[in-house]
């Protein structure tokens, strides 16, 4: 029996025929674009998160672009993004003509470092850029420090965006993802904590006017109907079929988050004495999109685990400022040494809600043996 890194088939078995029935229902009514399941799922997202408005869209990358468009971010604007993240976080700023400015992350949480953000703001101003937006990432399922980020952003007149592609369902001091920043974006890519069977995404906000604007932007900048086009927009909608699937998956998300935390606790107990395991500060609840440890000989560990049938993955091997397509954009003064070190040391272990105890014990023993 091979061990899965993320086991979507176990989840499917757990759901029984609920997915098939949800799909059959859509095939029956035939409203494939913006059918009733889309609005129903958006309502479910609001109920789960506590956000006033949830606007679904084509994917988590489009969600970021929609937010940049809704705020009119463009030429001359600095958008602060962490150097240690998936490319999409930084990708949309240049697409709308703005400049991404790379900021380092905190070694313990993997999330935006506040000192580096301050240095980045100074770097941007010295380059003649206007600080407009900070996109913090809730990496691996744990939120960034939004209360602290908000203080800096307020002082500078910047909008805060939470890129929660990996963290829908997580919380900070009892407040759920979707309510921690002016805008929150997420992704329903299959491997994310709340994933569909294709692409999908959403934007959350409490601002009714911006929500209406986002609903226009996702359908070609429509006015009162789709043949009345009042602005430049995108074609970025969540498919009705995916919404139907997501309604069923959202119904089990709370239980899955509990299960993910049990898996994380077992890893911490089994490995905490020999490797750097992730730390969850007081007040944070992670949804563990990834369980990421740090070791000095990362590639050696990956090879030995592979021999023992344990799959691993590296998120992320190259910090953003070292990516060929991004090497010309500004970096906060002082550079991003933590992001560079993490890129060399991180390795993620199998993590999903259906990882049973005997399998996990095998993984833990394999890691211990490989490091001995
Ligand atoms: C997955 C991911 C995205 C992009 O989501 P897609 O739905 O694949 O477009 C953006 N940011 C982060 C941090 C991600 O992990």
TrEMBL record:
- One MF term in the entry's GO annotations: transaminase activity
Keywords, sorted A to Z: Aminotransferase, Pyridoxal phosphate, Transferase
Tell me one GO biological process term.
polysaccharide biosynthetic process
Answer yes or no on keyword Transferase: yes
- Pfam families according to UniProt: DegT_DnrJ_EryC1
- Identify the domain of life: Bacteria
Q: Does the keyword Lipid biosynthesis apply?
A: no
The residues responsible for catalysis, as annotated, are: 192 (proton acceptor)
Location of N6-(pyridoxal phosphate)lysine modifications:
192
Similarity comment: family membership: Belongs to the DegT/DnrJ/EryC1 family.
> What is the protein name for this chain?
Putative aminotransferase DegT/DnrJ/EryC1/StrS family protein
- The record lists the organism as Magnetospirillum molischianum DSM 120
């Amino acid at each position: 029996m091979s061990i899965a890194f993320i086991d979507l088939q176990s989840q499917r078995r757990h759901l029984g025929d609920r997915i098939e029935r949800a799909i059959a229902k859509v095939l029956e009514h035939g409203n494939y674009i913006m059918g009733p399941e889309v609005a129903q799922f958006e309502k479910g997202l609001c109920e789960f998160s506590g956000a006033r408005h949830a606007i679904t869209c084509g994917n988590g990358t489009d969600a970021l672009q929609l937010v940049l468009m809704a705020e009119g971010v463009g030429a001359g604007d600095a958008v602060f993004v962490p150097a240690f993240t998936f490319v999409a976080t930084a990708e949309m700023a240049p697409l709308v003509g703005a400049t991404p400015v790379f900021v380092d992350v905190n070694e313990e949480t993997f999330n935006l470092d506040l000192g580096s953000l301050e240095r980045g703001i100074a770097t941007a101003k010295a380059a003649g850029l206007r600080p407009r937006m900070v996109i913090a990432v809730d990496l691996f399922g744990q939120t960034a420090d939004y209360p602290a980020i908000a203080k800096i952003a307020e002082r500078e007149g910047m909008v805060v965006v939470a890129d929660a592609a990996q963290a829908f369902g997580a919380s900070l001091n009892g407040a759920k993802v979707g309510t921690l920043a002016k805008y929150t974006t997420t992704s329903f890519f299959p491997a994310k904590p709340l994933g569909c069977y294709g692409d999908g995404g959403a934007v959350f906000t409490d601002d009714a006017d911006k929500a209406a604007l986002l609903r226009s932007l996702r359908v070609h900048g429509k006015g009162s109907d789709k043949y009345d086009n009042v602005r430049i927009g995108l074609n970025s909608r969540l498919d009705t079929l995916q919404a139907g699937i997501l309604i069923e998956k959202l119904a089990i998300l709370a239980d899955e988050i509990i299960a993910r935390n049990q898996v994380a606790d077992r890893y911490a107990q089994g490995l905490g004495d020999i490797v750097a395991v992730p730390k969850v500060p007081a007040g944070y609840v992670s949804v563990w999109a990834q369980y990421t440890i740090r070791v000095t000989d990362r590639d050696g560990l990956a090879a030995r685990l592979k021999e023992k049938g344990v799959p691993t993955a590296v998120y992320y091997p190259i910090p953003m400022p070292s990516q060929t397509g991004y090497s010309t954009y500004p970096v906060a003064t002082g550079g991003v040494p933590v992001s560079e070190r993490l890129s060399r040391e991180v390795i993620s272990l199998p993590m999903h809600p259906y990882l049973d105890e005997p399998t996990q014990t095998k993984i833990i023993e394999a890691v211990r043996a490989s490091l001995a």
